[in-house]
Amino acid sequence: MAFYVSLGITLILAITVHEFSHAFAADQLGDTLPRSQGRLTLNPLAHLDPMGSLLFIVSGFGWGRPVQTNPYGFRSVTARTGMAIVAVAGPFSNFVMALVAAVPFRLGLNLNVGAVGEIIPSLAYFLQIFISVNIGLMLFNLIPIAPLDGL
Q1: Alpha helices in 68-122 (DSSP H)
Q2: Catalytic positions, written as ranges
């Protein structure tokens, strides 16, 4: 049960931040489409796809709602460069989240506190799943196959 609680929380955070990062990068480059579609938010409801989320839990494979962008709306860069920046923003956010979650391990902190039976996991267990899922999402999204971010 602790695995599913940890995985559920991790997927909500990882997918939400991943898709928000795409929207934020596009917005910073001048594209107003993600903002007008309400995707420039950390509200998980704007980024989670119901079927994709359910499949993540059941099979380990799923998806979030992709952020739409208008490459011709970029002000400071060419359409091609802008799309590359927007594409890498999602996987980069997964890398940063995994890096931040690894800091307590590197500092040698005691993370085996808070475990309550089989339902609420220890912080160490949660962070291990969080790091693994974020690194997995980052690497998977860099595969150069549509509709993944690496294309």
Answers
A1: 79-106
A2: 19
* pTM attached to this predicted model: 0.89
Backbone angles phi, psi at 150, to 5 degrees: -80, 0
Distance CA(110)–CA(93), nearest Å, equals 26
Residues 6+ apart with CB under 8 A from 99: none
- Which residue has 């049960």 as its token pair? 1
Closest-CA residue to 69 (of 87, 54, 88)? 87
Q: Look-up: residue for tokens 């590359």?
A: 84
The number of CA neighbours under 13 Å toward the Cβ of 85 is: 18
Per-domain residue ranges of the chain = 2-141
Q: What is the pLDDT along the chain (151 residues), one digit of tens a residue?
A: 778 888 889 999 999 999 999 999 999 999 999 999 999 999 999 999 999 888 877 887 788 899 999 999 999 899 999 999 999 999 999 999 999 999 988 888 777 765 555 555 678 888 999 999 999 999 999 998 888 887 6
Given a contact cutoff of 8 angstroms between Cβ atoms, the answer to whether 63 and 52 are in contact is: yes
